[in-house]
Amino acid sequence: MNNLGGLAERKAANYMRKKGYDLIEHNYNTRFGEIDLIFEYNDMIIFTEVKARNENSIALPREFVDSKKQERIIAAASLFISQHKITQQVRFDVIEVYLENYQIKCIKHLENAFTL
Can you tell me the distance from the alpha carbon of 55 to that of 5, in angstroms, rounded to the nearest whole number? Predict the structure, then answer.
């Protein structure tokens, strides 16, 4: 992960903590792929992909979470659910981090960005 991606993930995690989410895993790696952040909130497990882009990017950050990326996240989440015997409801979110001159300008949290 590059430094900008790491910064975006840390800022996203802090943003979510301020909203009352409890971070339970950061950079959960599996053979299927990685999940950036995993939170618990209101008895729900939230698998979260963080995408950072400069303001003048050709596409919105969420557009980089395509169907193949979603499949990898879902496969990794399934493994996490199995390993941790998760019984709560799960949700898949995307956090968009907008940058300007390599500084974070704003963060947008997209709940239920995709489903199983």
Answer: 15
pTM of the entire predicted model: 0.92
What DSSP line would sit under 44-91, residue for residue? EEEEEEEEEEETT-SS-GGGGS-HHHHHHHHHHHHHHHHHTT--SEEE
Question: Which three-class secondary structure state does DSSP give residue 82?
Answer: helix
Q: Residue ranges of the chain with pLDDT lower than 50?
A: none
Q: Is beta strand 89-100 parallel, antiparallel or unpaired with respect to 44-54?
A: parallel
Determine the residue type at 93: D
48 vs 9: CA distance, rounded Å: 10
